[in-house]
Amino acid sequence: MPDLSHIVKAYDVRGVVPDQWDERLAELFGAAFVQVSGAKALVIGHDMRPSSPGLSRAFGRGAVGRGADVTEIGLCSTDELYYASGALDMAGAMFTASHNPARYNGIKMCRAGARPVGQDSGLAEIRALVEEWAERPDAAPAPVAGPGTVQRRDVLPGYAAHLRSLVDLSAIRPLKVVVDAGNGMGGHTIPTVFEGLPLQVTEMYFALDGTFPNHEANPLNPENIVDLQARVRSTDADLGLAFDGDADRCFVVDERGEPVSPSAITALVAARELAKAPGSAIIHNLITSRSVPEVVRENGGTPVRTRVGHSFIKAEMARTGAIFGGEHSAHYYFRDFWNADTGMLAALHVMAALGEQDRPLSELVAAYDRYPSSGEINSEVDDQAARTAAVKAAFADRPGTTVDELDGLTVQGPGWWFNLRPSNTEPLLRLNIEADDAATVDKLRDEVLGIVRG
């Protein structure tokens, strides 16, 4: 009996193949997904990991056995799968483990229109069925009388055309851009998306290779953008772009090779989206910079603060009718993209903003990057709740200080704030700090970590 508690996460399925799950379980997940969602048709895609094709086909067999028609789109990025789900109005399943090492794989599932499936929206029920059927094969329902069909479809041209219809780069000044695909799915999608645009592209690690021979496909880790930074400097490029393994996140470096904060990108894109839809709501999670709600208000929009995580962002997008949402992790969500996240569309916005004027990127984003911050600092602890409570007790009664617990512990004081959140999957506490000056950031960091690690 497999222990699914280790692989069914808050938003997806993710674990080591074949140790924690395999094609047999993937087939059960396909059948359970159809039974829980009621999907009559679904689209399935996968990344370049060695285990992805077999797992995705097994999931499809399970879905077909429950009577659903399957459209296979093969190799794709996660946001390309979301495009297919939205454009074809079908439920979807993407096989990827994003930035995790090669031995991992996973499933991101959605209902038609790219509506997410998470613990509170069907994933718990799917897990329960898979556990029941895996433990008692006789309990699994027999295949339906009329099994579904399977067809192949190429959606990459439509995906690229849709993105380019949302951001016009035809009239920008020519730009030199270095792109590090990290041997992930950006190497598959970028040539089609960027084709014919006024861009001189230097490609890095575009060969699809799910063993990640050059570096981990996680651009938020500073070690993984060192090569990109060096190439931007050596080629005098205007900017650099780094994508994660499934190419749904995009990280930006400026012409100096310096990282651009995802909060600054969120603020920049928010200003551009508000120019198209004045007065709209913009979603930001609670650990993005204060500059994000400030820029939103300055541009006539309404900032809406939410918890970290795509299911919360997408729910608030739907509830408020927001035009755009951004997270500190370089996930960017668009109403024009079925409220789903696409780093590629954010990248097009950045290049359009840069190419529409003559300043370098570092000067352009300076208006959106206003406060020193700590970045995310992780601490391994034995008792997340006790350590968090100790920090709360130390700060709660200080004059001018407010505390909220929307997502972990957020403490705000005069000219500063910090958030301390437990990891959902590891015994970690994650600390983010921002203040008016670097000295205050350092002081808060030392004090909070002294309590957390003491």
Please provide a written account of the structure.
By secondary structure, the chain is α/β, with parallel strands linked by helices. It has four domains: 4-154, Alpha-D-Glucose-1,6-Bisphosphate, Chain A, domain 3, CATH 3.40.120; 158-256, Alpha-D-Glucose-1,6-Bisphosphate, subunit A, domain 3 (Alpha-D-Glucose-1,6-Bisphosphate, Chain A, domain 3); 262-341, Alpha-D-Glucose-1,6-Bisphosphate, Chain A, domain 3; 377-453, TATA-Binding Protein. It is built from 14 helices and 21 strands. It has helices at 23-37, 52-65, 78-87, 123-135, 156-166, 186-194, 226-234, 262-276, 291-298, 310-320, 343-355, 361-366, 384-395, 438-453; strands at residues 13-16, 41-46, 69-75, 91-95, 104-111, 115-116, 150-152, 175-180, 199-204, 239-243, 250-253, 259-260, 281-285, 302-306, 324-326, 332-334, 377-380, 402-404, 409-413, 416-422, 428-435. The longest helix is centred in the C-terminal third of the chain and has 16 residues, at 438-453. The mean pLDDT is 96. Pfam families: PGM_PMM_I, PGM_PMM_II, PGM_PMM_III, PGM_PMM_IV. Residues 7-135, 159-257, 265-371 form the Alpha-D-phosphohexomutase alpha/beta/alpha domain. This is Phosphomannomutase/phosphoglucomutase. One of its GO terms (biological process) is carbohydrate metabolic process.
